[in-house]
TrEMBL record:
Keywords, comma-separated and alphabetical: Hydrolase
PROSITE patterns (UniProt xref): NUDIX, NUDIX_BOX
CDD domains assigned to the protein according to its UniProt record, in alphabetical order: NUDIX_Hydrolase
UniProt name for this protein: NTP pyrophosphohydrolase
Amino acid sequence: MIRSVDHSDTAAVRTISVSAVVLSRPDGAVVTVRKVGTDRFMLPGGKWEAGESPLECAVREVDEELGVSLAPEALEPLGRFDTATANEPGFLLVSEVFAARVAGDPQPRAEIAEARWVTADELAGIAALPEDACEPWAPLLVRVARECLGSASVS
């Protein structure tokens, strides 16, 4: 897990730290979200609050964004990923990514304009995209699809 990240404007690279969650159905489809006022689909999640662990953030954000309540022990850590941001040019995105199974159909809430299921076949196509030209997907989704979602199911 991330110990310390310099968020000051004087850092050589400005950084945004988030937790993200791969929520999958038994058929391997993964839910993606698009925030209000944006055009990129990404994994649900968001920025850490003061004193919050990446796992606590993941649980809170999935509930806020999709109305899905997850027990912390239901989340499997997938790792830390450093990518470009989807909507904040000039920033590095440092993401702690978790995976969990979900039942039902998560519904967009809070700042989420749209939730979209991506099938296992679509994920394979997303994994093949270059991260610097992957619209309408977020670079983090491309990286996680490439490195973690391959042919094996998550969770």
